[in-house]
UniProtKB/TrEMBL annotation:
Organism in which the protein naturally occurs: Planctobacterium marinum
Residues of the ABC3 transporter permease C-terminal domain: 289-404
Sorted UniProt keywords: Cell membrane, Membrane, Transmembrane, Transmembrane helix
Listed name of the protein: Permease
Top-rank taxon: Bacteria
InterPro entries: ABC-4/HrtB_transporter (IPR051125), ABC3_permease_C (IPR003838), MacB_PCD (IPR025857)
Residues in MacB-like periplasmic core domain copies: 19-232
Membrane topology: Multi-pass membrane protein
GO cellular component: plasma membrane
Compartments where found: Cell membrane
Classification lineage: Bacteria, Pseudomonadati, Pseudomonadota, Gammaproteobacteria, Alteromonadales
Length: 414
């Protein structure tokens, strides 16, 4: 019975109730969106690189090595000798290795020199392999495969020619014009730094740094022994390792860190990613704090609406008291009205966020490389909904106690 009385009372004050409902809907939607996107971003961050047991680079900080080798941010303190790479690659514990050479760029996007093993062994997300949107994974001499964002933002398609430049700035005065690259493939979006990378072979990177006559001579006979010898890489920036057994990870890591020929550092990607995410925890907490402030202001708006309606309901409350309604029933009636509004706003917010993510997920992944799941019906969202209902009950105690204290004669005398 109390629910039907509360529903009828809310219907009689449609305008103010709808405005309060909309205010709560916006704030709860914002809170749910921030929390969901934060969680998805954290999961996506951890899935940037998958299946890699060790990342090896010149001796530096753990985060610096992770940033420049995986996220293409910053620069290496030193290079690794090619002979060292080959020696470690041939270790019986090593299953595969992906060399990485950085230093050049194309219109602000990093150029990464690597081998064809990159397309065979690199994984992201839940061990997902790289897939092509167009063309083939051919990074032969003066051939390149573009990340999804590079191709989309710069409007490239298979068969186009591009020129890379020395350095990592968006504008360079040292372009390698003598050896333009042909786009042979474009990767599908991954939501990782792969989308922002121009992939070329290590031999191509060696080639572009030669003089113009030497480039012309090599391109005239690329398969000659002299050309092959000259294109042999001398050094690389870092490399990724996959091992035959996970149990060997710490042993191989210790062996590389104690390598005597040159100073090296081997890191575990998962540990470094966790440490990096902890550094971003302040931003994460700031987003949560702003959402909570918006929710609290909306809940106080709900309380204000109920308090304002109490003045208009003197006679209604007095009649309820006259027909036998006790103070406890009035307290429950006000609480029921507040919880009904809050419950409706929470359910509508869940549906709104789900619909928004469901219909925008493809657009977000295509244009921004953001892979946000639309599954908001999870334990975290239910926990937020529960907290909102409890908070509503607490703030609604102010008008409910006012109704509880109102005397029987109050209202009837007016």
């Amino acid at each position: 019975m109390i629910f039907s009385i509360a529903a009828s009372s809310l219907k009689s004050r449609k305008s103010s109730v709808i405005l309060t409902l909309l205010s709560l809907l916006v704030s709860i939607s914002l809170l749910l969106s921030v929390e969901h996107i934060r969680k998805e971003a954290k999961d996506s961050f951890g899935r940037t690189v998958s299946g890699v047991d060790l990342i090896v680079g010149a001796r530096t900080g753990q985060l610096n090595l992770l940033l420049y080798s995986v996220f293409r941010i910053g620069n290496a303190t030193n290079n690794i000798d090619w002979a060292t790479y080959e020696r470690i690659h041939k270790d019986k514990q090593v299953k595969w290795a992906i060399p990485i050479s950085l230093g050049d760029s194309h219109r602000g996007y990093r150029v990464m020199g690597t081998s064809t093993d990159y397309f065979s062994h690199f994984r992201y997300g839940n061990k997902q392999a790289l897939e092509l949107r167009a063309g083939e994974p051919n990074i032969g001499l003066t051939k390149t495969v573009l990340g999804a964002e590079v191709a989309q933002k710069l409007g490239y398609k298979v068969g186009d020619k591009i020129t890379i430049a020395h350095g990592v700035g968006s504008v360079s005065f040292s372009n390698h014009d003598e050896a333009p690259f042909v786009v042979t493939g474009i990767l599908k979006a991954t939501g990782t730094p792969v989308d922002q990378t121009v992939h070329v072979s290590l031999e191509s990177l060696e080639l572009v740094h030669f003089s113009a006559p030497k480039i012309a001579a090599i391109l005239a006979a690329p398969d000659s022994p002299a050309a092959i010898e000259q294109l042999q890489p001398k050094s690389i920036t870092a490399f990724l390792l996959g091992l035959n057994s996970k149990f060997a990870t710490f042993g191989v890591q210790r062996s590389i860190n104690n390598y005597r020929v040159e100073p090296l550092l081997a890191i575990l990607p998962g540990v470094a990613l966790s440490e990096l995410w902890q550094m971003l925890g302040t931003v994460e907490n700031l987003l949560r704090f702003i959402s909570l402030l918006i929710l609290i202001s909306s809940l106080f708006g709900l309380t204000t609406m109920l308090l304002a309606s109490m003045r208009e309901r003197h006679k209604e409350i007095a009649v309820l008291r006259a027909i036998g309604a006790g103070p406890e029933l009035l307290f429950l009636l006000i609480q029921t009205e507040a919880v009904l509004i809050s419950l409706c706003a929470t359910l509508m917010a869940l549906v709104l966020v789900w619909l928004a993510l469901h219909f925008s997920s493809a657009w977000l992944s295509e244009h921004y490389g953001l892979f946000i799941s639309s599954n908001v019906w999870n334990s975290d969202s239910l926990l937020i909904a529960g907290i909102v209902i409890v908070a509503t009950f607490v703030v609604a105690c102010i008008p409910a106690i006012g109704a509880y204290r109102r005397g029987l004669h109050s209202g009837l005398n007016q």
